[in-house]
Amino acid sequence: MTEDAQILIARLLAHQTLRREDKLVKRALSDENFRSDVDARLKACGMKFVDNVYADHVTLALTRDSESKVFGTKDTWQNNNFGLARDGVALLVVLWSLIILPKRERQEAHQMAQEDQNDMFGKEKPLPRAEDTSIGISYRTLLADFGEKLGKKTRMDMNLGQLSRLGFIERKMDLIMEGPLLDLLMDTDALKDRIINGALSDIFHIPMPRTPAVIEAERLAAEEAEHALTEEVKPSEQNKE
Questions:
Q1: CATH dotted code for 2-71
Q2: Quick one: pLDDT band at residue 18, thresholds 50, 70, 90?
């Protein structure tokens, strides 16, 4: 067991990602004792094993306690540790939203459909693989919809190239597809509600929830706008007199 744990960690360090179908990866996902050995070895080095039931790959990452000590000297480490500029991070979030969120819906819908079917043996059914449910997005569509806000064509092409080299995306002709890391290193729980109900609500055509706080904010904004309009009208009325 000890040697296998060592080999799995070394392979992840060398290759960055491994597929879930890999023999040692499958063992780490199913064998509790083996996983504990892997986790203990990684924790001693300030690292952790990262997997996601919706993703086809696994990878390694730094623990939260280690991040500041490793990346604290870099200007960009607080929003990413890949050296991405602000527009690069924005592009990454947009791609995650347009590729991963629809994929999640298809995977969950497929899973629910399977659970609704009668199965006399009650066998657990895995989620469909990402490569079977992730359809990507057209580069031309991305450029038309977000080019002006994300640095136009030259800057977007530069950031897409960097995201491809880092393993977040893959390019196939005009299509931008999910890479091994896109569904692994993005915090879905933290991002999903913020994106659907906030930053990209206009794209997903989902209005923000009408909570009391939102209603009060809208009322105050309306009062401020009315006050500003009144202040603008007063000088013109005085001039007429």
A1: 3.90.1150
A2: very high
